[in-house]
Amino acid sequence: MIKLQNVEKIYRTSSIETLALNNINLNVKKGEFVSIMGPSGCGKSTLLNIIGLLDAPSKGIIELDGQKVETYHDKAIAPLRNKMLGFIFQSFHLINDLSVIDNVEIPLLYRSTTARQRRELAEEALEKVGLSNRMKHFPKQLSGGQKQRVAIARAIVGKPEIILADEPTGNLDSAMGNEIINILQSLNENGATIVMVTHDDAMAKRTHRLIRLFDGTQVL
Question: Between helices 115-128 and 174-189, what is the axis angle to 10°?
């Protein structure tokens, strides 16, 4: 499902060159739930951004569902990313002026779906995360855990094959964190492939496999 071969990422300025990822080789099978751990600045989020086609590698091969995508142009990447990938971020990235259900509908605006279809899919996604009774609320009226559940609903509304989660429990207390990991496990049990960056050993232990990074390099 996800395959990286000899992937490197180098950030350059006029005076500094930083090797963010060094010779990463990764193979995530369909239906796996994989966690990525490592100290701050070790390249975890960079790796997730490259898998999610939000950033391009400086070197190496990326395959998603058998397609080599590292050389795709933006016009080809955008529809592939919208169809295949769902993103969950630590800081939620909800739009405060939009209701919960309007936030969840956002990824569908880039597809050829009707307003009625968007609303039905958004309602279904919110039901999956237990927020059917908060559809008309606004983000400022929600707790942190509820905001993250809205973010998960937004990530799954388009029924992506792959969910990428960057510290999804990082801003939550342990009780809310457990709720979120329970939802992710349920999504995984229903077929989603999940790659999750986390700093929490307890959360990582609830996934199928752990990948550790240190200074941009896999720790074997």
Answer: 120
* DSSP assignments along 128-151, one per residue: HTT-GGGTT--GGGS-HHHHHHHH
Q: What are phi and psi of 112, to 5 degrees?
A: -85, 65
Quick: pLDDT tens for 160-192: 999 999 999 988 888 999 999 999 999 999 999
The CA R_g of the chain, rounded to the nearest whole Å, is 17
The tokens of 148 are what? 């993250």
Q: What average pLDDT does this structure show over 28-46?
A: 95
Are the C-beta atoms of 128 and 159 separated by less than 8 Å? no
CATH superfamily to which 31-58+70-219 belongs: P-loop containing nucleotide triphosphate hydrolases (3.40.50.300)
CA–CA separation, 2 vs 105, rounded Å? 26
- 203: buried, middle or exposed (CB in 10 Å: 19+, 13-18, 0-12)? buried
